[in-house]
Structures are given as structure tokens and as C-alpha cells.
Amino acid sequence: xxxxxxxxxxxxxxxxxxxxxxxxxxxxxxxxxxxxxxxxxxxxxxxxxxxxxxxxxxxxxxxxxxxxxxxxxxxxxxxxxxxxxxxxxxxxxxxxxxxxxxxxxxxxxxxxxxxxxxxxxxxxxxxxxxxxxxxxxxxxxxxxxxxxxxxxxxxxxxxxxxxxxxxxxxxxxxxxxxxxxxxxxxxxxxxxxxxxxxxxxxxxxxxxxxxxxxxxxxxxxxxxxxxxxxxxxxxxxxxxxxxxxxxxxx
Amino acid sequence: xxxxxxxxxxxxxxxxxxxxxxxxxxxxxxxxxxxxxxxxxxxxxxxxxxxxxxxxxxxxxxxxxxxxxxxxxxxxxxxxxxxxxxxxxxxxxxxxxxxxxxxxxxxxxxxxxxxxxxxxxxxxxxxxxxxxxxxxxxxxxxxxxxxxxxxxxxxxxxxxxxxxxxxxxxxxxxxxxxxxx
Lengths: 250, 181
Prior knowledge:
heterodimer, A: 48% helix, B: Rna Polymerase Sigma Factor, Chain: A, Arc Repressor Mutant, subunit A, 2 domains, 10 helices
């Protein structure tokens, strides 16, 4: 590859968008070419400066309220259409129909897994919405683990997975299945991963199961008497990879 | 009195809130960078959310953030076409303040006490097509595939556009740093 080819592909390399073969070609070229490696270093510093330079505009709280209430308003106005008097008979007939329909729509008989999944999704969404992802912010497992002592009646395994590409961000207390649970927060690029841990009611070992809900991926398993649920908007493959690292370390 | 619309509307609002509201920071961030103004960004983010709610029925994917950001971008572009068409066409003439002989030196930038402020200004000065890919890549951490869908360009164009965006940004930043002294 010539320097011109490399200069274009450097960006794909920087962004982790190239395949392994191309990555290797570029790595080898950068080791030997001072000009290209200078460009690469400059682009890398620039990227770091943008990412870490507090350039992100978070939505102000008043906007959050404004948008939420305007959506509820629209949702409401769509269902209060005026009904003409001569249509009362039709309305009466449809009420009968609708009561049956509404009864059919009420969710029933959800199995235990789906109920927990729903709770996990809600917890995850809530943690992101109120900007309360962590109670203790630290990438140090030796700070996060002791923090849970005295707050929980069990001691969760806490492992920083920075080397594996999933740095630990911190921990939080949460509440699932009618009990306090440990929530460990990890990060992959800009994706937040919540890992919920609590003691299981029985000692069975359950293999990893993956599911998707409302645009989030979930993975859960149990091991050594503990339940684990991981959730993120990260893609399925990487989340399962994360689960394997957690399993290997616990 | 309740009817079937009641039940389905309520659950539609709830589903929408769970799937789309968590991405409000992303929506506002993109609108804010495109408009470069708090007030317009808030109005356009709200308008985009209302549009998203209206078309929520057509959303079947799993990537609510990308879907929402596509709507935010379209809403902003429509607003620009109607109110400030010149901003969509104005390209930034590098030659006017070009200093080719002075390569970008990140160390020089980091020594500046107002480096974050300078970087913000340099990003804001970039033409919209370059600004948006940088924001989606560096601040949202989106993949090339996601960026291509949101910006409505072929996936193969994303890398070259990012390359041009970064090179312009470096050049402009160098000029700003030199001007500061």
C-alpha cells in the first residue's frame, strides 16, 4: 500500500472500522513510515480532544419536561375526538366490543423471565434518564466492591474489564424482584452496560440466555447461586462477549 | 368513558417513552451542533420528538437512537432550508486563511488554556456536512453504517467525509491557535 492509500484508510483504522487484514497492513506501515504515523498521531489526539473536551450538549431538564408533556398532550388529543349524537348506538355497540378487546389486551400470564426482563429494562432506562447511573464512581474494583458492604446482604464479584475493552465505570444500588440488588456499570465506547447481580432463590446453574426488548439487548445467567442480568443498547454480539468475560472472572 | 383508542394510545405513549425518550441527550446534542444555538436546538428537538411520536408506528427496528437522530437531522435540515438556506450552501473557504506550511500540532493546542473553547469554535465553523459526521462519530460513537443511514450518504462515503472533516478541522484549528497569540 502506498502512503496515499494509507492516509485515506487511517480514518477507518482510527475508528475501528477496518477488517483484521487491513488493520494489520496499516499497523505495519505506521511502524515504518514517519509521515503517516505523524498524521495518525495528530488525528488520534484530535479525536481524544473532541471526546474528552466536554463538547457534548446534554438536554436541559426543562426541555425534558416540555417534550414529555407535549407528547402526552398529543397522545391525549388523539383519543378525544368529538362523537356525533346519532352515533350513540354505534358507540354502545363498540363499547361492548371494546371491553372484550381491552380485556384481551391486558397482559396476563407473563412468565417469570419476562417479568424480570421488564424490570431490568425499566431499571436500565431509569438509570439513564435521571442521569443517575452510578452511586460510586470508580474504575477500581477495590473501591467498588467494598462500597456495597453493609448495603447488601451479599457480596457481588466486582471485576474491572478494561483490558477486555469494557471498563468499569462504577456501581449503584438498585431494586429488582422485590429485593435490593447490585448494579455494576460498564462502558463500551459510548454504550452503557448495566450488570445486575443478586442471589438466586435456588442453587441451579442456568446457562446464558439472550433476549431483546424495546431496542435493548439482554443477557442473563446464573452461576454459583447468583443471578446475573446484563443489559445495554450495545449490539448482541458484543454484549454476549461481555457476558463471557464476566463469567470467566466470577 | 374509555375506548380502544384509549388503551392503545396509552400503551403507545408508554412504549414511545421507554424506547425513545432515553435518547434525548443525543437528539439535543445533534440539534445543538447543527443549529449552534440553544433556543433553536430546543425547538427543533421538540419538533423532532413530536414527529417521531407521530411516525412511531413505522419504527420496527431495534436502534431507536439512530432512528430518532435521522428524524432530528431531517427536521433541522427542513428548518434550515426554510429559514437559512445560505447555511446549507456556504462552504468554508480554506484558502482565505490557509497556512499549509504550518502542520497541525496537537501539543500546541493542548497548551492553550482555552483549548476546549477553541475546539468548539473550530467545530462550529465547519460546514454542516462535515460537522455532522464528526459529531455523530466522536460524540455519539456511532458506526460508519449508522452514520451513513442518518446522514443519507452511501456507507463508502462516510470514511472519506470524516477524513476531509478531520483535515479541515486540523487546519482551521491551527489557524485559530495562531491567531490567539
